[in-house]
Each structure stands twice: as structure tokens, then as C-alpha cells.
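assembly run, all chains below
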Amino acid sequence: AQSVTQLGSHVSVSEGALVLLRCNYSSSVSVYLFWYVQYPNQGLQLLLKYLSGSTLVKSINGFEAEFNKSQTSFHLRKPSVHISDTAEYFCAVRPSGGYQKVTFGTGTKLQVIP
Amino acid sequence: GAGVSQSPSNKVTEKGKDVELRCDPISGHTALYWYRQRLGQGLEFLIYFQGNSAPDKSGLPSDRFSAERTGESVSTLTIQRTQQEDSAVYLCASSPRISGSSNEQFFGPGTRLTVL
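ok done. output:
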């Protein structure tokens, strides 16, 4: 079985600041990793994903996440956040083999302050 | 349709009543998930259907909760004898079965259930 831990249920940062949202996972097999975002009053949508290859993956809106196998982490960061990044961010993991269940973390609410 | 749809979008019911929530996945998606999101909390896995395999019901919180899916189409989540703690947004997601794919999930807009 897999598990996901997101440290910090709420994070507040000023606009233009660097933000780091932490995600650690536990799994006995190789995994795919995801970050989903839920903007206020909207549904969840995929932000970025790691499947294989380069351990640094990027989204179109400036977020990036780095897969660190030794530390079993997939932290999400953005060098300079915008007010529009205010949302809840969920880390998720699933085994890379077969067709298996996705496990989500409990989410981190990011509040960007003007 | 273009995406996952759920109905109703809002449901208000009285304690003790039964409710049915519906999810229409994206056509061709073999996997379907139900999650619960209580106010201010994260996603809570409820149940997972993958094709014709036996569903993974490990997340259902009690025997008041059940779900069905006919083939690879519509799914219904039923909550019997609703309690106030069942109040939450119920989310449905589907994903395709494509070899070598990450099986990204596509989420519906959710059903907001309020139990008075």
C-alpha cells in the first residue's frame, strides 16, 4: 500500500515570494507522482506529474516539482507566486505497474497575500 | 460529454433519509473513483472501480455506503440513513486504461451533500 504525507495544511506567502509545498510518500514499489490543484469553487485538475526520466517536472504556470527517490519526496515549488495561485494543492501517488489505485495526500491550502 | 459529470450538483436531505449520487465518467474510461471531501479537509478515498474487476471498497466508511457501476459507464453512490457527518462534497473521477499511461484522473465538479 502507498501513503502520502503533505506537511502543512495551510501556507500563507506574500505575492512574489518563493513557495515550497512538501510531499513525502511511502511505497514498496516504484511509483508515479502527481500534483493536483483545486482553485476556489472549482474541481481538481492535474498540475504536473512525474512518470520517469528527468526528475524535475514543470507546469505551464511556473510550478515545478522534483522527484527525489532517496528521500521519497516530490516537493512542489514556485519561485515567485501570484495571487491567482491561491488554491488547494494535493499530492498523489500510484504504483507504476498495472492499473492501480491513486492515493492522495490531505492537501495544502496556499494563500497568496497581496 | 467532454468531461466527468455528476448529479445532482447540490443535495439537501434530512437525517435518516437515503440519497443517491450519480457520476457519468468520460466515455471509454475504465477506471472510476469516488472521494469525499469534508469542509476544510482533504480527499478521502471511498471506492475504486477498474473495468470488470472487483471494486476496491476499502475506503467506504460504513455499511451505509455502497456504490455500483454497470460495465464502464455510470456509477451510483448510495448513502443509506444519512447522518450529519455525511455532509461533504462527493467527488467522482475517471481515468483511461492505456498501456504505459500514467492514468491521470479527470475529476467531476462534485455533489455537495448537506444533511440537516
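The domain at 3-113 of chain A is CATH 2.60.40.10 (Immunoglobulin-like).

The radius of gyration of chain A is 14 Å.

not gonna interpret more than that til we talk
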